[in-house]
TrEMBL record:
<dbReference type="InterPro" id="IPR036291">
    <property type="entry name" value="NAD(P)-bd_dom_sf"/>
</dbReference>
<keyword id="KW-0560">Oxidoreductase</keyword>
<dbReference type="InterPro" id="IPR051122">
    <property type="entry name" value="SDR_DHRS6-like"/>
</dbReference>
<protein>
    <submittedName>
        <fullName>Oxidoreductase, short chain dehydrogenase/reductase family</fullName>
    </submittedName>
</protein>
<dbReference type="Pfam" id="PF13561">
    <property type="entry name" value="adh_short_C2"/>
</dbReference>
<comment type="similarity">
    <text>Belongs to the short-chain dehydrogenases/reductases (SDR) family.</text>
</comment>
<dbReference type="InterPro" id="IPR002347">
    <property type="entry name" value="SDR_fam"/>
</dbReference>
<dbReference type="GO" id="GO:0016491">
    <property type="term" value="F:oxidoreductase activity"/>
</dbReference>
Length: 275
């Protein structure tokens, strides 16, 4: 665990999945605006980008702790909050972002290796949905949530359309949406806000790891046709919008699924019928 120097009275962002991609982009952005210290949780798969993030947050004059663990279990949430308490004061977490992934793809009734067995189902739901609750519970129980704190889950457009072997991802994200709504009702009277940010495909290290350069080129071309803007959205655009959601101007959002897809699914039927 690494940390920079600073005052424990400052406000913090807790970001699950902070070492790369969207999580890292959000961590860097909120260190600059509204100026939060960063407690980033990561599995250690991208040590170089995790190190770069530490430098970027410190260059913004903020403290940073990169805590390596699998964040998907209730035990990890308890241990992570205990580690956070070592550097952060009570009621100091202004922003919590759930940006971890680890889903299985496949088919529920397949007879092959892509069958979605019970272990894969449990693991996906723990990572993509249940862990949001585990961390919200642990932060609230430890009295670490700052006044008017923001808790944010991340969603994709798979709740609107069907994509081959991603049924388990869609189901877990549907559970996450329900968790967001119910936590919004429970935490709302305490002054906190819980929302879900839905955005389209962005280019991340994980995406580059999964797809070949040729497949990525096809992916970008398809998104250029789908999106009214004629291109994919970027990590930086998503991260900048999270800084807005962390600000006072967005204080009335609660229990919302906020559409930041840029109209990604508007042309799907047109593309099918008029290719």
């Amino acid at each position: 665990m690494n940390e920079g120097g600073g005052d424990t009275g400052q406000e913090w962002a807790v970001i699950l999945g902070a070492s790369s991609g969207t999580g890292a982009g959000i961590a860097e952005a909120v260190a600059h605006k509204p100026g939060l210290n960063v407690f980033g949780v990561h599995r250690g798969r991208y040590p170089d980008t995790a190190s770069q993030l530490e430098q970027q947050v410190r260059s913004a004059g903020r403290r940073v702790v990169m805590w390596q663990a699998d964040a998907s279990t209730p035990e990890a949430a308890e241990a992570g909050v205990a580690a956070l308490r070592e550097v952060a004061g009570l009621r100091s977490v202004k922003l919590f972002v759930h940006s971890i992934a680890g889903a299985s793809v496949g088919h529920f009734l397949s007879a092959g290796e892509d069958r979605l067995h019970a272990r894969r189902i449990r693991r996906t739901f723990d990572t993509m949905a249940h862990s949001f609750v585990y961390w919200a519970q642990a932060l609230a129980d430890a009295d670490l949530l700052a006044p008017e704190s923001r808790l944010l889950g991340l969603q994709n457009p798979l709740d609107e359309t069907h994509l081959g072997n991603t049924g388990l991802i869609s189901a877990s994200k549907a559970a996450l949406e329900m968790y967001v709504r119910y936590l919004a009702m429970e935490l709302g009277p305490r002054g906190h806000r819980v929302n879900l940010l839905k955005f389209g495909t962005v280019m991340t290290p994980a995406l580059k790891h999964v797809y070949s350069p040729e497949a990525l080129a096809r992916l970008e071309a398809a998104h250029a046709k789908m999106n009214p803007a004629g291109r994919m959205s970027t990590v930086e655009e998503v991260a900048r919008f999270v800084t807005v959601l962390a600000g006072e101007e967005a204080g009335w959002f609660n229990g919302a699924t906020i559409d930041f897809t840029g109209g990604m699914t508007l042309r799907l039927l047109d593309l099918v019928l008029n290719p």
